[in-house]
Design a protein that fits this description.
This protein is α/β, with parallel strands linked by helices. The protein is built from 21 helices and seven strands. Strand 3, helix 7 and strand 4 form a beta-alpha-beta unit.
Length: 453
């Protein structure tokens, strides 16, 4: 079945996949995206008023982009012309635009051109629709999982409002699943399905916040479960695992096991044990933990237990996971885990900032030394702002050795670099700088006093 052929979907009825049959067609049926579709929000008011501008819907798979576009067309009584950028070409776009012109001329009816995966259209294909978006022949709604700033041409982007869709929350997925189970017209209501609580939680977890994946797995589970003597189809955890072909790993993302595993990962990293660190990271990933939660903890670990260069590696892993997604992103996480586990350890920065926090509590208003203040007005210059400031680039080694802390904290040391890895170089560099200043002061001749006559 063509994903977008709704008339064919209606003809097939129950022959269509559950995810297609349960696709909402009205505003009150839509689940999720409260920041866009909640009562009183701009998009909802625009839809209800029938004044929807051209849009780019940017969000992950299964977040409701196609459904939202269809609801907009249905609610505003517009003709819905969907295409997929994977298979459509310029000829298809021209045909739809010509039909839209005739429709507007003869019936005063608006046309919504929905382009799924618009990021796959090349520049010439996007250019083809630009004039007709501009003159109002069509209202464009593009759907993309990629950042439209990089994938949609600037002229087209400037004529569309970009709306970001968030992944569905677990409670929203639960609403969609339970609605499908109870719905007798389009759902599984006539099959008398009962879903165990642990099976429901597992279904939500393995769906990766994608409603389409959840509903398709639910339908497979229901169809492969024979009814009992009472005519009920009892779907257990094992049935869901068979449907998604993924075994259950004991894990609760909000409970004790969750915190036990992340603690084990953190301590294995600190203990420089790459094998254990990989194992605990894998346990969490394979059980369905959000990869973004894991990389957030890696970023924190890099800052707390290593410092400086390690933070770059942890952030690179975060960017890689965001860029290529899962499951391919698991190797980026694994690489970061091994690097952090085998990197020289130091909590110098952690302790330094703790000292700074304590100092600020005790002396929250220590004044900035006058030589560090900018004399932006004549009055400030007259008050001594900037007097005595030494421009470091004019000194040997680009280091003047002047005081930068408040007078009350003069000679205070917060950061004490360790003797491992890059921090060893930092310690040697700081020592060399300050020793050069001491030597320069020692060589400076003491001015002779004039004898009294």
């Amino acid at each position: 079945m063509d994903l977008f052929d709704y008339s064919l979907q209606q003809e097939k009825g129950e022959g269509a996949p559950l995810a297609a049959r349960m696709r909402p067609s009205a505003l009150h049926q839509f689940v999720g995206q409260e920041h866009l579709m909640g009562e009183g929000h701009v998009l909802r008011k625009a839809i209800e008023a029938g004044q929807v501008p051209s849009l780019i819907l940017w969000g992950p798979t299964g977040s409701g982009k196609t459904t939202l576009a269809f609801i907009i067309a249905n609610t505003t009584e517009s003709h819905f012309s969907p295409v997929s950028a994977v298979s459509a070409g310029v000829a298809d776009l021209r045909r739809i635009i010509n039909e839209a012109k005739e429709r507007r001329k003869l019936y005063k009816k608006k046309t919504i051109l929905f382009i799924d995966e618009i990021h796959r259209f090349n520049k010439s294909q996007q250019d083809a629709v630009l004039p007709f978006v501009e003159d109002g022949t069509i209202t464009l709604i593009g759907a993309t999982t990629e950042n439209p700033s990089f994938e949609v041409i600037s002229p087209l982007l400037s004529r569309c409002q970009v709306l970001t869709l968030e992944p569905l929350a677990e409670d929203e997925l639960q609403i969609i699943i339970m609605r499908a189970i109870k719905d007798e017209l389009n759902g599984l209501g006539k099959m008398n399905v009962e879903l165990d609580e642990d099976a429901l939680l597992r279904l939500i977890m393995v769906s990766n916040k994608d409603a389409r994946v959840a509903l398709n797995a639910l339908e497979i589970a229901a169809l492969t479960t024979p009814p009992d003597k009472e005519g009920k189809r009892h779907i257990s955890l094992n049935t869901i695992e068979d449907a998604v072909q993924q075994r259950y790993l004991p894990y609760d993302k909000a409970g004790e096991r969750h915190y036990d595993l992340i603690s084990a990962l953190h301590k294995s990293l600190r203990g420089s044990d790459p094998d254990a660190a990989l194992y605990w990271a894998g346990r969490m990933l394979e059980a369905g933990e959000s990869p973004f939660y894991i990389v957030r903890r890696l970023v924190r670990f890099a800052s707390e237990d290593i410092g400086i260069a390690a933070l770059v590696v942890a952030m690179a892993a975060q960017q890689a996971v965001h860029f290529i997604g899962m499951p391919e992103g698991n190797l980026a996480i694994a690489e970061a885990v091994v690097y952090l586990a085998t990197a020289p350890k130091s909590n110098s920065l952690y302790e330094a900032y703790a000292k700074v926090q304590e100092e600020i509590k005790e002396k929250p208003d220590a004044e900035v030394p006058k030589h560090l203040r900018n004399p932006v007005t004549p009055l400030m210059k007259g008050m001594g702002y900037g007097d005595g400031y030494k421009y470091d680039h004019l000194f040997p080694g680009h280091f003047a050795g002047q005081t930068h802390l408040p007078d009350s904290l003069k000679d205070k040391r917060f950061y004490q670099p360790g003797d491992q890895g890059y921090e060893k170089q930092v310690a040697e560099r700081l020592k060399a700088w300050w020793e050069s200043v001491k030597k320069a002061k020692a060589k400076k001749p003491t001015p002779k006093r004039k004898k009294k006559s």
